Amino acid sequence: MREALSSCLSCDKLGIYTTEQKLCQDPKLKLKWYTFSVVKNLQIESTDKIQLIDITDKVRSIITQSNTQEGIVIIFAQHTTCSLVISEFEDSLCDDFSKYIQSIYPKGPFKHGHGIRNGLNNEDKFHTPSHIFSSLIGQHITIPFTAGKMHFGTWQRICLVELNGPKVRNIIVKLHL
């Protein structure tokens, strides 16, 4: 069965990495299997300590550039002090979201102290609440798409939730087809 499996990794001019796996049709096994994925890294820069940033158009652009019609998109934040959500995105809601997070932000004391160990200033060492909120909200989203379009409700958008900014965040977008 392993002899029938072939895989490759390539990168195009847009920086989109693709992986492809095929299980060739074997008359004895009567199997056909095919998967294809596209992986793209996004760098998103926040400007505030707590902030919602709409990344929907960047994800949509990756789907469009891939010329893929159907599959799922997985969006993953490679950080422990930010999250991803599906939300409506408009200024007053973003303000409300930020104010609410700040109003329930725990004050400590906390035992988490890599800021102290690494000699960071006092503000940097008190980001434990960012870790807590990030783990509660989550760092990934999965969305199906058909005809190259994500299956959203009327007001749904993909948002990065910055909890310890300002920072540059690395977001992985993977299309699985």
Structural class: alpha+beta
What is the count of β-strands? Answer: 10
**Helical content class:** 10-25%
Radius of gyration (Å): 20 Å
| CATH architecture tag | Sandwich
CATH superfamily: YjbQ-like
CATH class wording: Mainly Beta
Strand % is 35-45%
So how many helices? 5
Number of domains: 1
Residue runs with pLDDT of under 50 for 5 or more positions: 1-17
What characterizes the major β-sheet? 7 strands, antiparallel
Order of helices and strands: EEEEHEEHHHHEEEE
3D architecture notes:
It is a single chain. The chain is an alpha+beta fold and 177 residues long. It has a single domain, classed as YjbQ-like (Jelly Rolls, Sandwich), CATH 2.60.120.460. The protein is 23% helix and 42% strand. The protein has a seven-stranded antiparallel β-sheet, covered by helices on one side. The chain has a three-stranded antiparallel β-sheet with strand order 4-9-6, with helices on both faces. A hairpin with a 4-residue loop joins strand 2 and strand 3. The longest helix has 13 residues. The protein is elongated and about 50 Å long. The chain starts with a strand and ends with a strand. The N terminus is likely disordered.
Descriptive keywords:
alpha+beta; seven-stranded antiparallel β-sheet; Jelly Rolls
